[in-house]
Write a structure and sequence with these properties.
- The complex is a heterodimer of chains A (347) and B (328).
- Chain A is mainly α.
- Chain A has a single domain, classed as ABC transporter involved in vitamin B12 uptake, BtuC (Orthogonal Bundle).
- Helices cover 74% and strands 1% of the residues of chain A.
- Chain A is built from 14 helices and two strands.
- The two termini of chain A are 26 Å apart.
- Chain B is mostly helical.
- Helix content of chain B is 74%, strand content 1%.
- Chain B contains 13 helices and two strands.
- Chain B has a two-stranded antiparallel ribbon.
- The mean pLDDT of chain B is 85.
- The chains are: A mainly alpha (347), B mainly alpha (328).
- Chains A and B meet through helix 5, helix 6, helix 10, helix 11 and helix 12 of A and helix 5, helix 11 and helix 13 of B.
Chain lengths: 347, 328
């Protein structure tokens, strides 16, 4: 049973012989992004040393946390050769729901808010997953539809209402600003999510099966992997994480209306693609996606410091996506030809 | 197979007819000629871009950058007009801009063999970003009325805008090319199987390249129309329109996997989307509900045919055909 899984998975748990090239590719991808990130921070800091003082370090991490949580969920989905366009709408729904919860129960414990937000997101993710797995409809279309539906529900729930920071309990708002050992609490959430997802995808059989599905859905099905169930799980996890991101958003910004997270789905997909997750599934890692998210939000913070017109930001993001997928294709082609060469010589 | 495809188009047209009849009977002001004039003006950019988008999706690709090309062309227009270039000189430059944007998409997809979904998400950000670089968050609105008024002018004696007639004419041309020429059959062939199409002598890469060029050029033209129609050039013009266009095309029964669909279905899909929205708006249904309706329609449009074929397969007591679950 596990042999075919290993055969199709690009990153087996124990690399051997001819798949070592794939492992090296993993390193090249992640290290490449990390290198770009370090270079960007170095150049910006040389230009203006205040870029790395305590306050702006904290801002940088706060800004990246929400995007990292979303990118981890999206990476899992993209690895299975699907996509979740509805994350921005789910984030908005959950953020507004958190605000509503505190309006109704002003002294609700933070844990309850977290559970409610994640639960709400989970429900959205389950709707997506059920439509994809049961009705056998492509994820792109389903989540494009639920992007509209969830946002519409959010708007009619809010009915033009805005929730202000003053309505939130101070303990919850502190969660959005406080630090622990110099790391913002929101970033700790993101790191925890990242490590759990990374460990799961790497070391659990069902995690490996996600890669197998993304590499070749038909082969995965033939080797006995419950493809529908795994894809359903991936969508539910992505929804749940978007729900968590909504609660974090509420804690960070305090002031909420129905437009929270509008259009963030493209940033998330950009982060995932820049982070080396192939858009057609089967390769990449959540660590890469998180690095991509970190890189994108650092660019956003660095441009004004470098005195580059902030209007350039989106264009830079677009160019980065193109560069990332182009580079990825070049690397994959090289590895593939090297693998072919080795097999031909019988090694 | 063919019968089923036909029946989805017919269904969309029937639903459209029902919506129109019910709305004219129950919604006040729906049947007025003035209302239909405005309706058509709203539908033009979506219908216009949906024409080449239909061809692109039938070949199994997608172009998500169209709304950004529209925005970039609007921004470039605004900046040039503000620096004194006359409108007749701007129009060819806008067209050239569309060609360049499309050639870039096409080069990345066919030249480097990259997935169009990823490429056009990239250029979606890139072109919209360039639009902001060109115009910032300013708005240029001092276009001469001789142009802005003329663009929304109705045909003499009616309330039908003349541009709608142009789009209709183009729709006929696209329909004939898609359904009655070798080019159209080649498009379906590549959507069904790229390799088989290549082996039967179709130059897949070249055709797809020119399709991307065509799509972006039309999107740029739509940007010109948009700017004139609202008499305002802004970098964020048409933001998010790509989703409406794709939704309309899929609602019209075109398969996201390529190889299936009709142009009549797409036009019915575009009209259904806009008619329903406007009818609900006139009936004082809040805008948020409209968003839900758009999304729900899109989901129904794909779940519907799938569910129908599954039920039919079960009735025939054969296991349902293995359709790819995981697919973008």
């Amino acid at each position: 049973m596990s042999t075919p899984t290993k055969a199709v998975a690009p990153l087996p748990t124990r690399p051997r012989g001819d798949v070592r090239g794939a492992r090296r590719l993993f390193l090249v991808r992640e290290l490449g992004i990390a290198l770009v990130l370090v270079l960007l921070i170095a150049v910006t800091t040389i230009y203006n040393p205040r870029f790395l003082n305590a306050q702006s370090r904290k801002d940088l991490m706060l800004g990246a946390s929400i995007l990292v949580v979303l990118a981890v969920g999206q990476a899992i989905v993209v690895i299975t050769r699907n996509v979740d366009l509805s994350v921005g709408s789910v984030l908005g729904l959950s953020a507004f729901g958190t605000g509503k919860l505190f309006l109704a129960v002003p002294d609700a414990p933070i844990v309850l808010a977290l559970l409610a937000g994640v639960g709400l997101g989970l429900v959205c993710g389950i709707v997506n997953g059920a439509l994809i797995a049961v009705a056998r409809v492509p994820a792109l279309v389903v989540t494009l539809g639920t992007l509209y539906v969830f946002r519409g529900i959010d708007h009619s729930w809010a009915a033009g209402q805005q929730i202000n920071a003053a309505d939130m309990p101070s303990g919850f708002k502190r969660m959005g600003t406080q630090t622990l050992l110099g790391i913002p609490i929101l970033a700790l959430f993101a790191i925890a999510v990242l490590l759990i997802a990374g460990y799961y995808l790497r070391s659990y059989r069902s995690g490996r099966e996600m890669y197998a599905i993304g590499s070749d859905p038909a082969a995965a099905r033939l080797s006995g992997i419950p493809v529908g169930w795994r894809v359903f799980t991936a969508m539910a996890v992505s929804g749940g994480l978007a729900g968590l991101a909504g609660v974090l958003y509420a804690a960070r910004f305090g002031t909420l209306d129905a437009a929270a997270g509008n259009g963030i789905e493209l940033q998330v997909i950009a982060a995932v693609v820049v982070g080396g997750v192939a858009i057609f599934g089967g390769s990449g890692s959540v660590y890469g996606a998180a690095l991509g998210a970190l890189l994108l939000s650092t660019i956003g913070a660095a441009l004004p410091v470098l005195r580059i017109d902030p209007f350039w930001q989106q264009a830079v993001v677009g160019a980065l996506i193109l560069a990332a997928i182009g580079m990825d294709r070049a690397l994959t082609a090289r590895i593939a030809s090297r693998l072919r060469g080795r097999r031909a010589t019988g090694a | 197979m063919l019968k089923r495809l036909g029946s989805w188009d017919v269904l969309v047209i029937v639903v459209l007819a029902i919506v129109v009849i019910v709305s004219s009977a129950t919604v006040e002001g729906f049947a007025s000629a003035r209302f239909w004039g405005f309706l058509l003006l709203d539908v033009i950019p979506i219908a216009f871009i949906a024409l080449p988008m239909t061809l692109v999706i039938i070949t199994g690709e997608i172009d998500l950058s169209v709304a950004s090309v529209l925005g970039l062309s609007s921004a470039v227009m605004g900046q040039m007009w503000a620096s004194g270039v006359p409108l007749p000189a701007i129009l060819p430059i806008i067209l050239l801009l569309g060609v360049v944007c499309g050639a870039m998409n096409g080069l990345f997809v066919t030249g480097f063999g990259l997935p169009s979904l990823a490429v056009t998400i990239g250029t979606l950000a890139l072109y919209r970003g360039l639009a902001y670089v060109v115009l910032g968050d300013k708005a240029v609105a001092d276009f001469p009325f001789s142009w802005t008024g003329n663009m929304i002018e109705a045909l003499p004696g009616t309330t039908v805008p003349w541009v709608a007639l142009v789009v209709l004419g183009l729709a006929v041309v696209f329909g004939v090319v898609l359904h009655a020429t070798p080019i159209g059959r080649a498009l379906f062939a590549m959507g069904n199987n790229d390799q088989a199409a290549t082996f039967s002598g179709i130059s897949v890469a070249r055709t797809k390249f020119w399709l991307f060029v065509l799509t972006a050029t039309i999107a740029a033209l739509a940007g010109f129309f948009w700017t004139m129609r609202y008499a305002s050039a802004r970098a964020d013009n048409g933001a998010g329109l790509e989703l409406s266009v794709v939704a309309a095309v899929l609602l019209g029964g075109v398969s996201i996997f390529g190889g299936r669909g009709t142009l009549v279905g797409v036009m019915a899909g575009v009209l259904l989307l806009i008619t329903l929205r406007n009818a609900l708006q006139l009936a004082d249904v809040p805008a948020d509900t409209l968003t839900v309706v758009t999304g729900a329609l899109l989901i129904i449009s794909v779940v519907g045919p799938n569910a129908a074929s599954m039920i039919r397969a079960r009735l025939r007591r054969r296991p349902p055909a293995a359709t790819p679950v995981a697919g973008v």
